[in-house]
Amino acid sequence: MSSAQAVVTAILFVWLGMVLAISFLEAPLKFRAPQVTLPIGLGIGRMVFRALNTVEVVFAVVTVVAMLFTSFRGVSVAVVIAVLMLAGQLLFVRPGLTRRSNAVLAGEDAPRSNAHYAYIALEVIKTLALLIGGILALIDAVV
């Protein structure tokens, strides 16, 4: 296994773990905790997702650069899908979610947003792409 292959494989699995832990565990659970109001949950969520998305962008850039130095076959398709889903979340979905959370945090009575469903759909696709990419990278690196 080359250094670039090891980097790609490691990043895909760490990225997958972060998305699973934050998006599918932390995010829904925080609103069930006692004393956590909607504004508090949104404030925490904004900070957590800003940090997650920042790390994801770094992971995406490092992965794409490392892929230039590997001979992975099917992994590149999975990486492209994951990166496109992340870009979709950041460029098209997050701005609407940010506007709503800004309104709620400012004390306005903002209507519920359907943008969460789009974010979750992209997150599920990204998660599957990371899982498949990681598995293919592991198989490809060993073979």
Q: What order do the helices and strands come in, and which of them pair?
A:
Elements: H1 3-30, H2 38-67, H3 75-105, H4 115-142
Helix pairs in contact: 1-2, 1-4, 2-3, 3-4
Transmembrane segments: 6-27, 48-69, 75-97, 117-139
Keywords: Membrane, Transmembrane, Transmembrane helix
Organism: Nocardia macrotermitis
Tell me the overall shape. Answer: elongated
Number of strands: 0
Arithmetic mean pLDDT: 92
Helix content: over 70%
Radius of gyration: 17 Å
Q: What distance separates the N and C termini?
A: 9 Å
Order of helices and strands: HHHH
Structural class: mainly alpha
* Number of domain modules: 1
Question: Would you identify the regions where 5 or more consecutive residues have pLDDT less than 50?
Answer: none
The major pleated sheet works out as:
none
Strand-residue proportion: under 5%
**So how many helices?**
4
Question: How would you describe the overall organization of this protein?
Answer:
This protein has 143 residues and is mainly α. The protein contains four helices and no strands. Helix 1 packs antiparallel against helix 2 (38-67) and helix 3 runs antiparallel to helix 4 (115-142). The N and C termini lie close together (9 Å). The model has no long low-confidence stretch (mean pLDDT 92). Keywords: Membrane, Transmembrane, Transmembrane helix. The chain crosses the membrane at residues 6-27, 48-69, 75-97, 117-139.
